Amino acid sequence: MVVKRTHLYEFHRQHAKMVEFAGFDMPLWYKGIIPEHLAVRNGVGVFDITHMGRVLITGAKSEAFLNNVITNDVSVLAPLSAQYSVMCNENGGIKDDFIVSRLEPEKFLMVYNAANRGKDFQWLVQNAGAFGVRVEDVSDSVAMFAVQGPSAQRTLQKIADADLSRVERFKCGFTRLAGCEGFVSRTGYTGEDGFEVFVWDTPMDKPDKAVKVWDAVLDAGKEFGIEPCGLGARDTLRLEAGLCLYGNDIDETVTPLEAGLGFVVKLKKESFIGRAALERLKAEGVKRKRVGLRMLEKGPSPRQGQEVWKDSVKIGYVSSGTFSPLLQCGVAQAYVGVEHAVEGVTVTVKVRDKALKAEVCRFPLYDSAKFGYARVK
């Protein structure tokens, strides 16, 4: 398989430790995971997320089509607003999670995970026929960055024509960025305030506009201590915030009700793929639930697949784990029996050859009054 590159490959190659991820040659870190993580929590960081998938869905029945294939209700979206959602299979298992934005009354933009680009596009095309909508993959002609952190707006405002203070959380808008046609969505994958930035009409063989905007963001953020950030910090940040990683925390064997994503499941909609299965599960009650874990003892950080125990009984498994640069301890997301999914319960995680105590926590794992988009200003 040929490993793909983004528009910023040359920058990454010169400045970052590289790794293959979802078929792309991507930066793992530049200065280091910890300084990049803390730059986002305390100031601002910028990520290249061009490897993610982007499709435009247009047509008179585009709203009806989306409401059939996703669990959330896009009818509530006004133009230039966005929502988080998932697509399910007929059994209620999660095919992917994503952000969908309404650009115009009959035009939507969906952004999904890099590892699922092919699968998601085919699923959308497969289900689009009866609705007569157009599903257009624009992933290779649109560069995408994430500017994240409490200083994200002040950084991006320096190069944006539009007043970004008018773009509220989960709203979006068109603007020129460093003189290039762009689009911004006040969303992200770090728990912090920030924007996902799209640079339109930027084919891979003509990366100049993408490079120009990236360089302009780095220059604009210098006074706020901006750092270019790689996949390593992206993972530690999202894990602290309690955000799911597809393939670890969610997949087609996990339902949104088990994953704690019931808020994006609108069972009152007329119909959607997987609805019947989710209705049955809700009526019966889930048997397991995704929770946060904070390690109470020093030792190796928890990792995916490790067992979670309570009173000599195995009650679940770790789906994602790492060392938290902010909390200075091991943290994890795990699936445990619903009776154990209670804040403050002490459990044991089998980390390598050690059994280490951990505490069940709600998300986010940090103090949301001090960190994250809802922090007290």
Provide an overview of this structure:
With 377 residues, the chain is α+β, with helices and mostly antiparallel strands. It folds into three domains: 9-50 and 142-238, 2-Layer Sandwich (Gyrase A, domain 2), CATH 3.30.1360; 53-104 and 114-126 and 255-284, Aminomethyltransferase beta-barrel domains (Alpha-Beta Plaits, 2-Layer Sandwich), CATH 3.30.70; 287-377, Beta Barrel (Elongation Factor Tu (Ef-tu), domain 3). The protein contains eight helices and 19 strands. Strands 10-11-12-9-3-13 form a six-stranded mixed beta sheet. Strands 14-17-16-15-18-19 form a six-stranded antiparallel beta barrel. Strands 5-6-7-4-8 form a five-stranded antiparallel beta sheet, with helices on one face. A hairpin with a 2-residue loop joins strand 15 (307-310) and strand 16. Helix 2 packs across helix 7 (231-241). The chain is globular. The relative contact order is 0.15.
Can I get a quick summary?
The protein is an alpha+beta fold and 377 residues long. The chain has helices at residues 9-15, 33-42, 62-69, 117-128, 152-157, 208-220, 231-241, 275-284; strands at residues 17-21, 24-29, 45-48, 53-58, 81-88, 94-104, 107-112, 134-137, 143-148, 172-177, 180-185, 194-199, 227-229, 288-295, 307-310, 313-324, 329-337, 346-351, 354-361.
